[in-house]
Write a structure and sequence with these properties.
The protein is built from no helices and eleven strands. The chain has about 120 residues and is mainly beta. The termini are far apart. The model has no long low-confidence stretch (mean pLDDT about 95).
Length: about 120
């Protein structure tokens, strides 16, 4: 059973940066497709970014050039570096792990509890 614990969410001003972390236990991040999703109030959960087992990454069009997903195998942790944040980035950000090589759909086996990111204008 893989457990995922997100951290790093907080209140930040527009234009600022945050780095989210997703610490995994019970399995290696390198053995799974790892992803970030987000969900804003009243909206569906949406794909943010993912890293496949090969290390190949994919990012949503809405954050291309602003967000970067990475992983540290020695710390067994997935990261999301978010730059030039906008108010519309406000959401709960979730980490997910699974075997979904398509990566962008929410077909993941394991999910974290989420971390709140709030971007003020």
């Amino acid at each position: 059973q893989v457990q995922l614990l997100e951290s790093g969410g907080e209140l930040v001003q527009a234009g600022g940066s945050l780095r989210l972390s997703c610490a995994a236990s019970g399995g290696k991040v390198s053995s799974y497709v790892m992803a970030w999703f987000r969900q804003a109030p009243g909206k569906e959960r949406e794909f943010v970014a993912a890293m496949r087992r090969s290390g190949n990454t994919v990012h949503a069009d809405s954050n291309q050039g602003r967000f970067t997903v990475s992983r540290d195998n020695t710390k067994n942790t997935l990261y999301l570096q978010m730059n030039r944040l906008k108010p519309e980035d406000t959401a709960v950000y979730y980490c997910a792990a699974g075997f979904n090589e398509k990566a962008t759909t929410p077909d993941y086996k394991y999910w974290g509890q989420g971390t709140q990111v709030t971007v003020s204008s």
